[in-house]
């Protein structure tokens, strides 16, 4: 089984355009049957949460997602109704997998936390996160609450690529994994080591690539849910135990998705509600915003195969809301205001690579002290990122720049492999607000452009408001625009619109990013006293 970087990268070079084919699935009745019930609208989360694994523990639903080089990694989302979600914590507190994740002599862009698995073990009331890193080994973390603390339980020498973790009814731990060749491993009772591994299925050449395993036991049958990137979903079923033999059936292929201009829903997980209804949460390729979750109900055939319920031959834009108990509280919105009170960052934030924790603090705002001397934002440590809310949203930052030093660069970026920013340059004792575009990477994630200033204006005093508006609707490159204010009320547009690219190969979508780095010497600082994400 070839798990080299180049092989795995090439397997994901699939067309991302939404196709118009009809998936195999039953049609929901149109019209009044949908209109009379409370409904939800897809995507259920219009933010970048890919490779979803979703579970239910009691009356609460949890989901995990890929984060690549962002730290902390593997966010855990929480919901009480499968529709409204909040970010509760992260399963991987720090990417301590090598110096490249610290931006120390190397970089980890498009490495790190790929498709991974989240499970709950009732016997010890513990959550488990399992994922492979750099095609070298697998890491398993545990926590008794999703907020943490999460601790590394073990490292396993086998890299379980795109793994799905199953806690069987007899408490045995199994892992389904692989690309095209699918294998199952059994772990020791304590989960710390592998006791058996066996190939269980080889994908027919006519299907192509299958990966993204999710592992289930349903009504005594074993199921491995697999994706065909980026336009299909298949399922394997065994009546003879976790090691097979398995038979395969197509779940969907070239199915029209719920987001105009977006791709085919795929690579997600199945979950059962308290009342016994089933749902499939997948993601939709929706660049420049990333890969966003969509939800659809699932029924089962008499012989035990899942069927996605369609609306007019497509994954529905709306469906009747899941019948679940009233939530105990409202979830925390993923947009709004953060004043960085308290002693820790709120879980909606992730650093670009691991931060230097001696160079930032919260409480009475977020203080970012310069942590890197560089002219390249992609090498700058302590760049703090926040997902963009679709289809369009605006981030506004109130920034105290009175402690900047000559050569410092600080501001608000639209960050990806092609980036732009609005911010402050301090040189020769004078401070200007500027826009910069042309920060670019090549396909190996090496910097090819460090940016060109496109507009500037002088600013006085020690405080400024910076604003970035992002249109992340998929289907075409979209504009990002920048403006600034000296009073927080009247904003002035600065610079031309920035075209946010929709190439998928960076995997992660655009993010808002707060940064402060030096080009001459360390010692300067800025303080973010308010950050707000708002939608129209």
Count of helices? 2
Query: What is the share of helical residues?
Result: under 10%
- Report the biggest beta sheet as strand number plus sense, adding barrel if it closes: 9 strands, antiparallel
Molecular shape: globular
Oligomer: single chain
Low-confidence stretches: 1-36
Overall radius of gyration = 23 Å
Which helices and strands occur, and which strands form pairs?
Elements: H1 5-11, H2 32-35, E1 39-41, E2 50-57, E3 60-66, E4 70-71, E5 73-79, E6 85-92, E7 117-121, E8 126-133, E9 137-143, E10 151-156, E11 164-167, E12 173-179, E13 181-187, E14 194-202, E15 211-218, E16 221-228, E17 232-238, E18 247-253, E19 266-272, E20 278-285, E21 291-300, E22 306-308, E23 318-320, E24 336-338, E25 349-352, E26 360-361, E27 366-369, E28 384-387, E29 392-400, E30 408-415, E31 418-427, E32 430-441, E33 447-458, E34 463-471, E35 478-485, E36 492-493, E37 498-500, E38 511-518, E39 525-534
Antiparallel strand pairs: 1-23, 2-3, 3-5, 4-25, 5-6, 7-8, 8-9, 9-10, 11-12, 12-13, 13-14, 15-16, 16-17, 17-18, 19-20, 20-21, 21-22, 24-39, 25-28, 26-27, 27-39, 28-38, 29-34, 29-39, 30-31, 30-38, 31-32, 32-33, 34-35, 35-36, 35-37
């Amino acid at each position: 089984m070839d798990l080299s970087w180049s092989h795995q990268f090439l397997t994901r070079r699939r067309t991302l355009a939404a196709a118009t084919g009809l998936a195999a699935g039953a049609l929901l009745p149109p019209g009044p049957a949908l209109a009379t019930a409370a409904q939800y609208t897809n995507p259920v989360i219009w933010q970048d949460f890919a490779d979803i694994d979703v579970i239910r523990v009691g009356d609460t639903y949890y989901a995990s997602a890929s984060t690549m080089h962002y730290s902390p990694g593997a966010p855990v989302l929480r919901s009480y109704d499968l529709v409204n979600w909040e970010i509760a914590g992260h399963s991987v507190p720090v990417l301590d997998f090598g110096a490249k994740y610290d931006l120390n002599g190397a970089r980890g862009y498009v490495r790190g936390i790929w498709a991974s698995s989240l499970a709950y073990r009732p016997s010890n009331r513990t959550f488990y996160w399992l994922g492979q890193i750099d095609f070298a080994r697998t890491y398993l973390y545990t926590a008794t609450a999703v907020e943490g603390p999460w601790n590394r339980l073990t490292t396993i020498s086998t890299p379980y690529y795109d793994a799905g973790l199953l806690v069987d009814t007899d408490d045995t731990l199994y892992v389904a994994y692989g690309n095209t060749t699918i294998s199952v491993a059994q772990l020791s009772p304590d989960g710390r080591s592998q006791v058996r591994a066996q190939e269980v299925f080889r994908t027919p050449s006519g299907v192509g690539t299958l990966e993204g395993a999710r592992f289930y036991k349903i009504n005594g049958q074993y199921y491995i849910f697999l994706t065909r990137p980026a336009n299909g979903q298949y399922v394997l079923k065994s009546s003879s135990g976790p090691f097979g033999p398995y038979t395969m059936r197509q779940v969907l292929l070239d199915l029209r998705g719920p987001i105009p201009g977006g791709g085919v829903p795929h690579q997600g997980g199945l979950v059962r509600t308290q009342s016994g209804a089933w749902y499939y949460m997948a993601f939709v390729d929706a660049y420049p915003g990333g890969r966003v979750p969509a939800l659809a109900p699932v029924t089962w055939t008499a012989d035990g195969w899942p069927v996605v319920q369609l609306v007019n031959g497509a994954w529905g834009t709306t469906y009747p809301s899941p019948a679940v108990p009233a939530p105990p509280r409202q979830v925390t919105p993923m947009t709004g205001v953060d004043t960085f009170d308290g002693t820790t960052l709120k879980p909606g934030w992730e650093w670009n690579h691991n931060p230097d924790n001696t160079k930032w603090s919260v409480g009475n705002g977020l203080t970012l002290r310069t942590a890197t001397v560089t002219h390249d934002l992609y090498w700058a440590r302590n760049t703090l990122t926040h997902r963009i809310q679709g289809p369009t949203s605006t981030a506004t930052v109130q920034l105290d720049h009175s402690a900047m030093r000559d050569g410092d660069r600080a501001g608000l970026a639209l960050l990806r492999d092609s980036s732009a920013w609005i911010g402050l340059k301090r040189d020769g004792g004078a401070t200007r607000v500027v826009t910069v575009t042309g920060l670019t990477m090549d396909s190996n994630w090496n910097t090819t452009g460090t940016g060109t200033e496109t507009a500037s204006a002088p600013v006085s005093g020690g405080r400024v408001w910076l604003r970035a508006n992002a249109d992340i609707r998929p289907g075409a490159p979209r504009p990002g625009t920048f403006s600034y204010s000296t009073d927080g009320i009247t904003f002035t547009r600065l610079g031309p619109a920035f075209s946010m690219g929709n190439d998928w190969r960076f995997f992660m979508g655009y993010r808002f990013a707060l940064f402060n780095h030096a080009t001459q010497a360390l010692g300067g600082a800025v303080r973010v006293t308010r950050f707000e994400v708002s939608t129209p």
